Amino acid sequence: MSEKKPKRPHFVYTLLVEVGRKTGDGLPDGATGAALMCYASGVDEDEAVRETVAVLKTADLNVLEVTGYGSLEEREGEGHDIEVDERKMMARALRENSVVVAQTTVFREGDESEDEDEDDDA
Fold it and tell me: Is the model's pLDDT at 122 over the cut of 50?
């Protein structure tokens, strides 16, 4: 007789994923990469990161770096202002035990140098 392990609770983690270019990645022409704001379900942040990277790789994205901002509870404890729409996406990720890409910011050649030039002029 085998006993089932109790299911560990899942939490939703906010992750910022930076991706580079790769053939077939679906990013627009002229893009050098992108930043993806994701909400991912997991028993801990490490699992959420692993699952997010795996999902993005299946979409032919070249994951370069992942920055974790913590669970909903951790972010609330730090005083983050979390909008209703963001909470809805987090609830969806938890309900579906999935990764939700909430926002994509495309990087283009020269984006960084323009910001640096503005700082030099000040």
Answer: no
Task: List beta partners, residue 39.
Answer: 14, 100
Residue of 71, 75, 41, 68 lying closest to 55 (CA atoms): 41
Residue entry with tokens 């627009």: 28
**Lowest mean per-residue pLDDT among 21-25, 71-75, 92-96, 116-120:** 116-120
Q: Which residue has the tokens 């990720």?
A: 93
If you count DSSP H runs as helices and E runs as strands, how many of each does the chain have, helices first? 4, 4
In angstroms, the CA 20 to CA 11 distance is 28
Neighbours of 97 (CB within 10 A): 12
Write b or e for each residue in 107-120: b if 16 or more Cβ atoms lie within 10 A of its Cβ, otherwise e. Answer: beeeeeeeeeeeee
76, 83 contact by CB (below 8 A): no
Does residue 117 have a pLDDT over 70? Answer: no
pTM equals 0.83
